[in-house]
Amino acid sequence: MTPAIEIRNLSKRFHVKQGLFGKPREVRAVDGIDLALPEGATLGIVGESGCGKSTLAKLILGLLAPSEGEVRVAGQSLMALGRRERAKLIQPVFQDPFSSLNPRRRVLDVVAMPLVAQGGLSSAEIRAQSLAMLERVGISAEMAGRYPAQLSGGQRQRVAIARALVLRPRILLCDEPTSALDVSVQAQILNLLAELRRDLGITTLFISHNLAVVEHVADEVAVMYLGRFVERAPAAELFAAPRHPYTRALLASVLTPEPGLGVPDVGLGDTMPDPSNVPTGCRFHPRCPVAIPRCSTEAPPLVGGAECHLLAP
Amino acid sequence: MKKAGLYLGIAILGLITLAAIFAPLLTSHDPYAQNLDIRLSVPFWMEGANPDHLLGTDQLGRDYLARLLYGARVSLIIGVLTVIVSGVIGITMGILGGFFGGRVDDVVLFLITTRLAIPVVLVALAVVGLLGSSAVLVVLVLGLLLWDRFAVVARSTTMQVRGLDYVSAAWAAGCSTPRILISEVLPNILSHLAVVATLEMALAILLEAALSFLGLGVPPPLPSWGLMIAEGRDFMFFSAWVIWIPGIALFVLVLAINLLGDGLRDLVGDSR
Amino acid sequence: MSLLEIRDLHVRFGATAAVRGADIVVERGETHCIVGESGCGKSVTSLAVMGLLAKGAQRRAGRMAFDGIDLQPMSERQLSRLRGDRMAMIFQEPMTSLNPAYTVGSQMAEVRTRHKGGSRRAALERAEELLAKVGITAPGLRLGQFPHQLSGGLRQRVMIAMALMNDPELLIADEPTTALDVTIQAQILRLLAQLQSELGLGLMLITHDLGVVARVATRVSVMYAGQVVESAPTAELFANPQHPYTRGLLDCLPVPGKLPPGSQLGTIPGMVPKLTEDFRGCGFRSRCGFAQPACENEIPLTGDNHLCRCVLAQ
User: Which ranges carry the ABC transmembrane type-1 domain (chain B) (predicted)?
Assistant: First the structure.
């Protein structure tokens, strides 16, 4: 069976000018990502700022052209498809519900936009389909005539979800969809997404920095560090028995609401990962609390979903 | 009161516009009709005024109020048309440069800097001097010269909007690039462009008056405020009002437009 | 005597009530967390204490005292002498409070010499010492750097070190780790907790993150719609939440390992009410499953050590 989405050796390098005469520096934002996801599954992608997860999202959506590799949805290469064909296969939900909706458009027009762009539908049909989708995400027909500024953050995010789903895409890409929302609103949006995923059978990529949220929504989790997946595993397995030292540090830094446990020592030090200066060998070794000399020279082997020297037999 | 300037500007500009539109109703005189018997009759507040001509007459005996009202038409029409011509040129260039970046932007930036290196008044004088004066030519020359600020503002605001998620969402939704430019980008930079439009309109009106004053703008006998000042030049020592009546009109109109522009800019700033 | 005592604080911006009854007491050597969602008035409360409210804000309080000194009649000058000296503040985005035009060292030294006098050299020495204390490697080098040369985590450490320059007794931290990555957040919070116990500071920590609260707070006050609705020692609050809002909030959280994946999260239906100046009573009643007519009256914060503002608790 062909996977719903397949990514092969996806890479993106930027060249950043340095000063007037400096040699342009190469920034490896995404560096050889492989991925295959079966129909209906949800993959959580976690990582910290600067790990390349936003660039990965843009590559998958086709907003950026990859330096290498390709993305295939339902067996078709996205690069080879036109914008309209691509729109029917994959749709995004962005982080900030205040910048993801055009402030000059009414809610109904925002949701109708993908249908209008596809063409071939009468305006009555477009209106009916948009209203139906809005109702599905919990936005009443009465609110459909308002402007985004008149809605709350949670309502705006619902509108963004309706816009993403109105074409019934195969893949939904959520880029930090709840990070800008309050906890009580976040819970509503996560429940809504879960319900829609179940009912529509959509394959979902869920990018987030919040491990608690990812654990709740994902079947499978990929941990991203400096442009690569350093560990990939089924969610339950990853949270029960993390293999990569970076995954362990990430999990340790999740502050669950359990009083008395104090703040754990994650032991990563101050050095921040810099995608314009990716370390040799294992890219995590300068921050790794358990690094051995080999880590700085050799690329780590892939063992059971994790790229780490210590896991080598 | 923060918006006093804005309202004052709108009020004055509205009054002048209404006066220009309804000029035939406000005065029964023909602005072109000469009557050499009553040359340079004085306005109503001076001794010996002709009650038939409220603001007096000019050196050819034409009614000064009629010429002032019809002259407002010339100023406003030339101002608006110039802004339309320069706006279309500048906004198109700015949006294209700001949205596509790269080579396109390099070309746009080059054109903007080239334009900024050209002295507007000198070129306008030269062109009008070479090709002869007409109202259409004035609009074209000014329109082709005054687009730079539109381009600069459209370019920078487009760059800001381009990076916002709703543009990415429109892209991912399958919208074509022209559709994204027209329905996602343009409406969201329009408020900034409105401010530029007022500034450019004031400038265009002043430049038209200057060109007309030099005899290179609209040709006589068209009633233009600049031309009226030029024609009154020889009589300014004994009949100063032939100069300062159109002068004050010009000052008030430009002031009103600038007040409006300032007010708009504050409003736009508020909503950000 | 408590280090900071706020009784019945009210803050209004024009016709909007931002805070309409905040009672917060911070003792020496304790971490008091104020938790709530956006717009609940938690940040405004902290700004009101520091005398940093925006122009046009009206403040009124039953009592507002720092170490027994009444803050209310103080002039701006007297307040600014206290600020940065005996009480210091850390903000969410360090870049807004660090001056981009000066080096880290000169900004830190200036904080010291302005309040305590002394030589610049001594102040710089102290700055270096504090940078080392907040876990910055090569502190001497950092003194000569500009804020933009530092990463987000380092900047926040610099902010903390700067707040400690004059040995404050009270430290107010407004969402100090919200803009940071989770691993850095854990490091910064660990540092704050360490410093707090080591120096015996009173720490007032404002956050929206119940995870942070659970791990660092001695005492928690939950704010909703401008009021403190519940206040209790941390373990007690999480084990035995009384107010319907606190309970709802705790149910909304996905907790790794506690909730079967794919199950529904609890939600709080409805929205925060608009707080006009004549709004009375419980702000949560429109979303509450236990609402009754009595909720429209002013409800006092009752209880001994576990305080709750709810008709059901009386």
Answer: 72-261
CB-CB: which of A191, A254, A261 is closest to C182? A254
Domains contained in chain C, CATH given: 4-86+168-313 (3.40.50.300), 97-167 (no CATH)
Our CA-based measurement puts residue A295 at a distance from the nearest CA of chain C, in whole angstroms, of 21
Could A94 and B168 be called an inter-chain contact, meaning their C-beta atoms sit closer than 8 Å?
yes
**Torsion angle, CA of C77/C83/C84/C89, rounded to 10 degrees?**
-140
Domains contained in chain A, CATH given: 5-311 (3.40.50.300)
Q: Is B143 helix (H, G, I), strand (E, B) or coil?
A: helix
Neighbours of B239 (CB within 10 A): 19
Distances (CA, A) of B118 to A42, A71, B141, C121: 60, 50, 13, 56
Q: Which residue of C has its CA nearest to A180?
A: C38
Residues 204-233 of A with CB under 8 A from B: none
Of B257 and B50, more confident: B257
Give the dihedral of Cα atoms A253, A258, A260, A265; nearest 10 deg.
-10
Please state the φ and ψ torsions of residue B65, each to the nearest 5 degrees. Answer: -65, -45
Facing C252 at nearest CB: one of A186, A215, A256: A186
- Given CB atoms, is A300 within the 8 Å cutoff of chain B? no
Sequence-ordered list of residues with C-beta below 8 angstroms from that of A255, at least 6 positions apart, any chain = A263, C185, C186, C189, C209, C211, C212, C214, C215
CATH fold for the domain made of B79-225+247-271: MetI-like fold (1.10.3720)
Task: Read off the pTM.
Answer: 0.86
Q: What is the pLDDT of residues C225-263, one digit of tens each?
A: 999 999 999 999 999 999 999 999 998 888 877 777 667
Q: Which chains border B (3 or more CB–CB pairs < 8 Å)? A: A
Which residue of A92, A99, A103 is in closest CB contact with B172? A92
CB contact under 8 A, C189 and A255: yes
Number of other CB atoms surrounding residue A236 within 10 Å: 15
Q: Does C257 touch chain A (CB under 8 A)?
A: yes
Cβ-nearest to A100 among B165, B174, B175: B165
**Is C11 within 8 Å of C44 (Cβ atoms)?**
yes
Any idea where the domains of chain B sit in the sequence?
79-225+247-271
